[in-house]
Please model this.
Amino acid sequence: MSKKVDVERKSIAARVFISCGQREKREKDIAQRLWTMLSDKGYEPYIATKQHTSEGFKENIFRKLEHSEYFLFIDFKREKLKTKKKDCRGSLFSHQELAVASYLGLDLLVFQEKGVEEYPGIMKFVMANPITFTSDDDLFKKIENEIDTAGWKPYWRRELSLSVEKEPELRTDKRNGKVACYYHLQVKNLHKSKPALNCKVLITDIKDKNGKSLTPSELSELKWKGTIASTLTIFPREMRHIDAFHVYCTSRDEIYLGINPYMVDSQAIEEEYTLKAVTEKLEITFSLYSDNFSVVKETFTVITDTQQCGVIKFYKKTDPSTEAGPCNEKSVSEEAPLTTNGNTTKVIPAPSGTITSKGYRRF
Model:
C-alpha cells in the first residue's frame, strides 16, 4: 500500500558530526582529511568549531547535532595530569559535544589518542568504549574499519520529508461528475529502520501574493490518498501521498484544499478550505506531524491558470525545479468503493482525490 523511497543520494546523504580538537595544525589537517574521506563515501560531514558563547553553542553546535545521523569523536592529547599514571587530559570542548550527541541518541564512534586519561568526564556515563590510536595513519585505518563494522550507511536521515508529486491526475470526481485536476504531496520516511507513527498533515498558513493571510480559522487533517484513515504509519524508506488540493475544470479560479471528508461534517470548514476567485500566486504551508519524528514544515507556491484546467505551477517555494507536470488523462475505473451494511452491499460516493484505478504503486 505504499512506495519505496527513490533515493536521491545528494539530497539525503547521512550527516556526520565530526568532533575533534583543532588546537594545532596537525589536528586541523586530520579534521579536513576526515571531511574529505567521509564526503567521498557519500556522507555529509560537518566539522565542529569552538563556540565562545552559550548562544553560539545553541545556534550552531546543538542545531547541527540535532540534525545529524552520526557522531565521530576524536579525543586528542592535551597537557599531562597530576596523577600517578601521568595520563594526559583530553579535549574538554569535544566532551561537551559528546554529551549532547549521546542525549540525542546519535550513533557514536569514539577514538582516543594513546595516553589520554581513560574514561574521563562524560565518557564513562554514555557507554562509549573508546578505540585507542597511536598515530594519524592508525587513526584513519581504524575509522575506516569501524565505519564498516558498525554498519554505517550514507543514504538515509532521521527525518520525514514533504515534496511535490510530479504527476497530477485529471479525472472525474464521482461525487458530482465534474472533471478535476488533483495534486498530491509525497510524504517520505527517510529513516533506515524506524517507522513514522501516527502521521498527519495540516495546512498551517496560506498567503496571497501581497502577503495577506488566507489561513483557515480551524486546523483540519488532510486526506491520505487511498484510505479513509486520518493518521497512518509510514514504514522506513517508504512513501505515501497526501491530497494537497484539486481544481475543477468548470471553476478554474477555485482551489479545493484536500481536507479529509470523513473527518469534516461542517459546511463552514469546507467553505474555509475552498479558496475562491484565485487568479494569481498563493503560498501554502503544509505541516507534517508524527509521534516520533520532528515536525516538518514546507511552503509551496501555487499559480493558477483560468484558461486551462488545473494550475500551471505547483512547486516547493525554495526550489522551482520541483514543479509538478501537467494534468494527463488517466483511465479511471467506473467502480466506486463498496461498503457493506448488514447483508446489503451498496455503492457510496468516493471522496475527492483518493481512489484511482492505479491505487498504490511500490518501487
